[in-house]
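A reminder from the course coordinator: this example appears on the midterm review sheet, so study it carefully.

Given structure:
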């Protein structure tokens, strides 16, 4: 049984790997994901998400398990949180060892902040993953916060070109919102039957 969202993603990835020997899976994550974010980009992403909600019908929202008032309230609170962070010249307050402490926020969202993860996820979804989905519909990307997993079916040598192209565009879009990927931590998963064949991912490793 699946008891959490994280387990659901892992189970989905494993199921596809078990049933599709042609699939290649890539794992990577972001460096200091939240605090590197450009707060202007966060606000723009939230406003774009709000516009999408306004332009969607109630029936369309229900298909994704969303309720208009609840999601609109949540998005507005995330926007208001950005205003709070920039009040008093970019200082924030938090409870440390039972005491209220005021500290400087150097930029972006607070690493480990309560609303930092949804702010990050919304910004990535609106400005990175959505554009990638439009250009590369066959590539599946699943994210849990700053952990990114990419899966693509590779049956020919030409299919191998998709991954470097996808990752290059992802990095360009990610950098525009202030992000930086941990490409030195990239992990690749491919079925061993592809070793030393035209579809061996090692042939394109130098492009990743």
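Designed residues:
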């Amino acid at each position: 049984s699946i008891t959490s969202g994280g387990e659901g993603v892992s189970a989905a990835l494993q199921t596809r790997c078990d049933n599709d020997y042609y699939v290649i899976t890539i794992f990577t994550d972001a460096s200091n994901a939240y605090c590197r974010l450009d707060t202007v980009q966060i606000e723009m992403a939230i406003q774009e998400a709000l516009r999408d909600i306004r332009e969607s019908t109630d029936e369309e929202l229900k298909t994704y398990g969303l309720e208009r008032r609840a999601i609109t309230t949540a998005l507005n609170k995330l926007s208001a949180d950005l205003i709070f962070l920039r009040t008093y010249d970019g200082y924030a307050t938090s409870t440390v060892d039972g005491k209220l402490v005021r500290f400087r926020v150097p930029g972006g969202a607070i690493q480990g902040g309560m609303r930092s993860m949804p702010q990050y996820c919304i910004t990535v979804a609106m400005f990175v993953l959505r554009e990638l989905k439009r250009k590369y519909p066959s590539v599946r990307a699943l994210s849990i916060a700053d952990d990114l997993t990419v899966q693509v079916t590779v049956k020919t040598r030409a299919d191998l070109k998709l991954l470097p192209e996808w990752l290059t565009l992802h990095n360009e879009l990610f950098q525009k919102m202030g992000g930086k990927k941990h490409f030195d931590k990239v992990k690749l998963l491919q079925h061993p039957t592809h070793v030393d064949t035209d579809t061996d991912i090692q042939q394109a490793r130098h492009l990743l």
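The helical segments are 5-19, 39-55, 58-63, 68-85, 87-90, 116-135, 162-176. The first strand starts at residue 23 and ends at 29.
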